[in-house]
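Hello,

Our lab assistant flagged a job as stuck in the queue for most of the afternoon. It eventually completed. Since we weren't sure the result was trustworthy after the delay, we are filing this so someone can double-check. Below is the sequence as submitted and the structure that was eventually returned. Let us know if re-running is recommended.
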Amino acid sequence: MRQLPTIYNLMREKLCGARADGYREFTAILLLQREFPAQAVAAALQEAWVRGCLQASSVHQILLNQTASVKPEPI
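-- returned structure --
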């Protein structure tokens, strides 16, 4: 945990303090690093924090939105 950016500790403290399943939710956030680069997860955590979306599913959706390819306009 000491090597992770500060946002991880903030999220862990908030989740574990506010929810009975906070550790499980935080673990799901950590596991997102299997699919996405660590820097992208940290950026998504920051965005989720600002938006008040403190759930692994929200962080995952932010990551998906960031990596989605832009669709061309219809002809």
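-- support follow-up --
The delay was a queue issue, not a problem with the job. The result is valid. The chain has one domain: 6-66. The chain has a mean pLDDT of 90.
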